[in-house]
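Backbones bend. Our protein:
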Amino acid sequence: VDATGRRSPSHGTRGRLIGDRVPDGPVGTVAVAATARAAAERRAVEPDGPAFRAEDLREARREQRAGNLLVLAVDASGSMGAPKRMEAVKGAVLGLLVDAYQRRDRVALVSFRGEDAEVLLRATGSVEVARSRLAELPTGGRTPLAAGIETALAVATSPGNGGSGHRPLLVLVSDGRATAATAGDPVTAAHRAASAVRTRGVDAVVVDAETGAGRLGLAADLAREMGARYLPLGELTAGALEHTLRDLVT
C-alpha cells in the first residue's frame, strides 16, 4: 500500500503484461513477440546477419497488485459502547472477507480490553474461519491501548506475514482513551507504542470511535503520533466501517 493505504503495484514474473524491456540481468520471462520484432528490425539493416543475437532478447514486464494484510486493533474495553463497536467490527470483517480472495487480501483482528490484548483472528482470507473465531467477542474492563497497538504491530510485522508478500496496514479502532498499562502511565505507554508504528514504517489508520458531545480528540492526537491517517466516524456501524476500510484497500 502507499501512504494513503491503497494497494501498490508490484513487478515480477506474474501478473498483467504491461510491456517489455532490454534485460539487465537474468531473464524472468521472455517477451516472444518483442524479441522477434527486435530481431526483425536488426536484420532489416543487417540482412546477412544471424537470425538471432543475444541483444535481440527482450524481457516481459508484468504488474500485479500486491494484496493487503489488514490488521484491525479494536478497543473492546467497557468504555464507549464496546459491545456495539465489536459487533460493527465483526460485520465489517466478514464483509471484507467475502471478496478478499479476489483482492488477494488477508485480515487479522486484535482485541484489547482489561489488562492485555489478544489476537482473535490470525491473518486469513476465509469467511468460515473468521465466522467461527468471531462467534463470541468478549468486552468490558479497562483500556490497555498500548498493548493493543503493540500486539497489532507484532502481527503486521511478523516474519510469517512478511514472507507472504502482503503489505500490512494497521487500523486502530478506538476513542483514544488509555486507562491500563503493564508499566508506567497508560497514556505515555500508548503514545510510545504509536510512535513505534511510525518508526517501523508500517502504514496505519486511526478510526475514531468516540461518540457524543464533549469530544476529547484523543484519537486524533494518537494518529499524529503514529503518522497515521485519521478517520472520524460519525456513527460506528458495520456498514460504515466496512465502507471505510474497503476504500483503504481498493
The CA atoms of residues 109 and 120 lie 6 Å apart.
